[in-house]
Amino acid sequence: MSEIRIAVTGVAGRMGRELVRVVATTPGCIVSGGTEPLGSPHIGADIGTLAGLPPLGLAVSADPLELVVKSDAVIDFTIPAATIEMAGLAANARIVHVIGTTGFSESDEAAIQAAARHATVIKAGNMSLGVNLLTAITRRISEALDADFDIEIVEMHHRQKVDAPSGTALMLGAAAAEGRGIDLKSNSVRSRDGHTGPRRRGDIGFATLRGGTVVGDHTVIFAGEGERIEITHRAADRSIFARGAVKAALWGQGKGPGLFNMSDVLGL
Q1: How buried is residue 202: exposed, middle or buried, by Cβ count under 10 Å (0-12/13-18/19+)?
Q2: How far, in whole angstroms, is CA 98 from its chain's centroid?
Q3: Which of 14, 52, 152, 227 could disulfide-link 205, Cβ–Cβ 3.0 to 4.6 Å?
Q4: Within a 10 A sphere around the Cβ of 117, how many other Cβ atoms?
Q5: Residue 157 falls in the annotated catalytic set
Q6: Inter-helix orientation angle 239-251/129-144, to 10°
Q7: Cα–Cα distance, 248 to 244 (Å, whole number)
């Protein structure tokens, strides 16, 4: 079986460099290229050297089209605008598009769904095995407990993260809402300030913390009368997300068009 050619967008970022390291050291995979935005000081640099590996003989490019024509899959942890552009290119090229980007608008989500009619798209707010197990558990607990148990989701990330709540927190919130049979959008509380009055029954609350170099902490709290259930996942290393993304890229080979998530990849 030939090696799977995997490209990385945002290749000079912390996540991009980690992805290159994982792809390059995963049997059956090769790094096929990487992009950075036009004007980046890293354009032309060797992708391997940038990631702390021996040179790979591949230069960082500013042309995403150049990337897709020589790849079987592209892994994308960037920003919504760049991901939407890549979704169209990956769909036209019929290659697997693994999306770890967060912070999408409703129109962005519609564009991704449209791309998935033509190519395999695997999108998740978090690619780690542990978080996806946490998501499954959250859904199951929500099914078992009624609205007498208040649901709160607390997340903390490093000071450089630009979107809030995190994609993972929203993924957990969606799982809790699904388990309870309610719509997350109309039952979520994203902030509290001042005299808010009592908590509304059935709401799903989100609390966002930012600071330091925290990779990602998430806790789901089910608070009832006289008792509380808390389940937590703490990420200590970005490689857990990179390994999950590469697993997704490999899983997607030959799957055909469709929008999938990590629960599909992991058989959850």
Answers
A1: middle
A2: 9
A3: 152
A4: 11
A5: yes
A6: 90
A7: 6
SS3 content of the chain, % helix, strand, coil (to 5): 35, 25, 40
123, 157, 218, 233: which is the annotated catalytic residue?
A: 157
From residue 206, give the alpha-carbon distance in Å to each of 153, 163, 166, 233. 5, 13, 10, 16
What digits encode the pLDDT tens for the residues 133-185? Answer: 999 999 999 999 999 999 999 999 999 998 899 989 999 999 999 999 999 99
Q: Give residue 238's identity as a one-letter amino acid code.
A: R
Tell how many helices (H) and how many strands (E) occur in the chain: 10, 11
Six token digits for residue 240: 């857990």
Pairwise CA distance, residues 218 & 201, whole Å: 23
Q: Which residues contact 233 (CB under 8 A, 6 or more apart)?
A: 128, 130, 131, 134, 216, 217, 218, 219
With tokens 């966002």, the residue in question is 208
Q: How far apart (Å, rounded) are the C-alpha atoms in residues 69 and 26?
A: 22
**CB neighbour burial string for 31-49, b if at least 16 within 10 angstroms, e if fewer:** bbbbbbbeeeebbebbbbe
**Token output for 103:** 């912070």
- Cβ atoms of 6 and 74 within 8 Å: the answer is yes
| 185 catalytically annotated | no
Distance CA 75, CA 86 (A): 10
Over residues 63-88, the pLDDT tens digits come to 999 899 999 999 999 999 999 999 99
> How far apart (Å, rounded) are the C-alpha atoms in residues 101 and 96?
15
User: Element (H or E) spanning 235, and its range?
Assistant: strand 227-235
CB atoms within 10 A of CB 167: 20
